Amino acid sequence: MRIGFIGTGTMGAPMARNIARGGHEVTAFDLNTDTLRALSDAGIAAAPNARDAARDKDIVISMLPNSQHVDDLVFGANGIADVLSPDGLYIDMSTIAPTMTVSIAERLRARGLAMVDAPVGRQQQHAIEGKLLIMVGGDEADVERARPVLDLMGDTVIHCGPCGAGAAMKIVNNFMSITINLAAAEALILAEKGGLDPDLARKVMLGTVAGQGHFGTTYPAKVLKGDLEPGFMIDLAHKDLGLAVDFAAAIGAPLDSGRLAQARYDDARKAGRGRQDWTALYDFLRAESKAAVKTPRLAAGA
Ligand code: NAD
Q1: pTM score > 0.90 for this model?
Q2: Most ligand 1 atoms within 8 A of CB, residue of 15, 17, 27, 31 to mutate
Q3: What is the C-alpha to C-alpha distance for residues 86 and 196, in angstroms, rounded to an integer?
Q4: Pick from 162, 179, 206: which residue ends a domain?
Q5: How many Å lie between the centroid of ligand 1 and the Cα of residue 66?
Q6: Residue 301: inside a domain, yes or no?
Q7: Residue 281: in which H helix or E strand, if any?
Q8: What tens digit of pLDDT does each residue of 106-153 get?
Q9: How far, in Å, from the CA of 182 to the mean position of ligand 1?
Q10: Is-catalytic flag, 57?
């Protein structure tokens, strides 16, 4: 296939290389000409601008920093929307706002052009090895058209729903990993300031839910089965968080995530859930937010 690739930075460059390695004819564009030149050894042609990279291609891929970059690329002055092939497919793999993804997909659809969103999980090393996890949103037929090329960049390609669903899944995933990073950092500082070896603390935590995570351990065993009978009850979790918050205050360690969690466990107790399993926090927050939950509008049929 003839592929246009726009945005050959940290992630885009190795992704474009893997597509070229897969036998496709790749033409790339990036504002930074150094990154483009560095791709010539992979047989990737450098286009002088985004339109030339996108013109007459079977698939055009973008991998840009944020929402505005992608909107400008497609619909800005000299945007690629005017040169995308009606038989082609546009795949945005950047991490951007799902509302922007849907907006771009709808404007392209009005011109008879198809789009798939396919943001990626994991890091640069996985991009180099072709082992990204790719979260895809789009019509079944469009996703199947994209799949041979996506398979060259990732070892796990998951169709998440209509256009916009890949972007939404990526935001959910990143919220989780970015937020637990704060708790991980605070836990290691708490260990260190408490006179413990942080390496040893990490080893200990890899043997418990702290390091193993809830999704593979407690959630499937309890709340996701509808079982709120306490294995470890919310009252006790709240007590233990209090111990951590007080310990941190005594030794001058930061514990912002701990204090926030303490307040929410406290809310659950006030709602009468103190003797439920700690995973019932999910059930509590879900019930609390139900009135406010709105189904996001995704571009079904886009
Ligand atoms: P990067 O900054 O290294 O690369 C972005 C590239 O886009 C740069 O080379 C830049 O020159 C180019 N660019 C910007 N505007 C352009 C335009 N109008 N036309 C052409 N080129 C343009 O960023 P990255 O780390 O490769 O990330 C790309 C996307 O992937 C981001 O949305 C990021 O959030 C996401 N992501 C990154 C990682 C990671 O570990 N780096 C992991 C998963 C997802």
Answers
A1: yes
A2: 31
A3: 62
A4: 162
A5: 8
A6: no
A7: helix 280-289
A8: 999 999 999 999 999 999 999 999 999 999 999 999 999 999 999 999
A9: 24
A10: no
